């Protein structure tokens, strides 16, 4: 079962040195060519070992999705900014990274976080003007999983909090406050999944909550703030076989629902806003991926390598039967919602196609779908891994 450990103020080294001032001079330690082409090992054999594109959100904006980050087939970090109703071509930021990148938006621009081939955490920023700062390393921890950043609401403007799985299997965190990283500290536990972070409306006691799978395959939550953490609390008895998903795209409401795949390969939902909630099975579908979620809708790949989508039909957590989105995909789906002032919601679905291109698919949505998805449009530039 999950090893419960209260927050420990065990600080190690603070922020590391700048690796390069610009893109041209940068190189992470380069692994053998075969290693660069392989995905990272999963935490457990039952988790989907698929790549996941990561959308950079600015939750202070009316239309929060600012761009998408991915790993290229050469191992480099790729970034594509939102442009009109689509995306600009992917630009390569270089380096050789392990696993999927992650991204947040702050006044500094789009801040990207990756795991290098030396298993340290690196950061790179695309500035509001489109410049690239180059990579810097955060010393003090080697990681064994993806880096999960979040912009907390209970820290000074411009702050970023990071979470990562350490070599001991525990969750570690680091926060940049007033321009300086405080250093890595352990939240304890032993986790067997990626770390998923979301925001709560209330800031008393910390408004960032993380979700992880424990060694018993059940889901645990931990609330984290400037003064420490609540400790891990189990969420129901469901044993899950995927990484965990919360919607990230709403600037007006905090996390509401947690999604996961169960041992029967069915999708389950857990309400985070209702006391005494339990895991509820969604309409039957056989999931073969992690789950993508946006405001009122969720997405999952199925055994025919297409995406199936379901939407929330009322405030009680009832979901519509899954429906098929035409087109083959080979990775985990990612989704977000545009929310124009006074207009309908617009659903965006992103997934990797068999030829390696990351593609987006658009569907008008106004409480109910106003038409089908229009079809996948590849983002030009380098292919993603």
TrEMBL record:
SUPFAM superfamilies: Fucose-specific lectin. Keywords: Signal. Gene3D superfamilies: Fucose-specific lectin. Residues 68-269 form the PLL-like beta propeller domain. InterPro entries: PLL-like_beta-prop. It comes from the Bacteria. Residues 1-35 form the signal peptide. This is PLL-like beta propeller domain-containing protein. It comes from Actinomadura decatromicini.
């Amino acid at each position: 079962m999950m090893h419960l450990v209260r927050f420990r103020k065990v600080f190690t080294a603070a922020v590391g040195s700048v690796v390069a001032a610009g893109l041209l001079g940068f190189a992470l330690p380069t692994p053998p060519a075969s290693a660069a082409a392989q995905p990272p090992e999963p935490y457990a054999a039952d988790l989907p070992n698929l790549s996941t594109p990561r959308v950079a959100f600015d939750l202070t904006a009316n239309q929060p999705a600012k761009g998408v980050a991915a790993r290229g087939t050469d191992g480099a970090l790729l970034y594509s900014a939102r442009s009109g109703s689509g995306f600009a071509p992917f630009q390569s930021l270089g380096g050789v990274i392990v696993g999927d990148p992650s991204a947040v938006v702050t006044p500094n621009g789009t801040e990207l976080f990756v795991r290098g081939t030396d298993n340290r955490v690196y950061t790179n920023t695309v500035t509001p003007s489109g410049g690239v700062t180059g990579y810097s390393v955060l010393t003090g921890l080697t990681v064994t999983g993806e880096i999960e950043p979040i912009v907390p609401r209970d820290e000074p403007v411009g702050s970023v909090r990071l979470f990562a799985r350490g070599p001991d299997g525990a969750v570690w965190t680091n926060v940049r406050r007033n321009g300086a990283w405080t250093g890595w500290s352990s939240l304890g536990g032993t986790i067997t999944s990626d770390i998923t972070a979301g925001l709560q409306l209330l800031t008393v006691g910390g408004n960032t909550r993380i979700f992880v799978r424990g060694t018993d395959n059940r889901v645990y939550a931990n609330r984290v703030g400037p003064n420490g953490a609540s400790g891990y609390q189990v969420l129901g008895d469901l044993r899950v076989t995927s990484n965990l998903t919360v919607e990230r795209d709403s600037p007006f409401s905090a996390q509401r629902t947690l999604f996961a795949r169960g041992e029967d390969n069915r999708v389950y939902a857990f309400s985070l806003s209702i006391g005494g909630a339990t895991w509820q099975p969604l309409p039957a579908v056989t999931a073969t991926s992690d789950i993508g979620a946006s405001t009122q809708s969720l997405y999952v790949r199925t055994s025919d390598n297409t995406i199936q989508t379901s939407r929330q039909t009322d405030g009680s957590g009832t979901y519509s039967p899954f429906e098929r989105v035409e087109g083959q995909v080979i990775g985990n789906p990612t989704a977000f919602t545009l929310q124009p002032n006074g207009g309908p919601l617009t659903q965006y679905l992103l997934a990797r196609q068999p030829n390696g291109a990351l593609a987006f698919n658009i569907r008008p949505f106004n409480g109910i779908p106003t038409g089908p998805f229009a079809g996948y449009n590849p983002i030009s530039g380098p292919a993603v891994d």
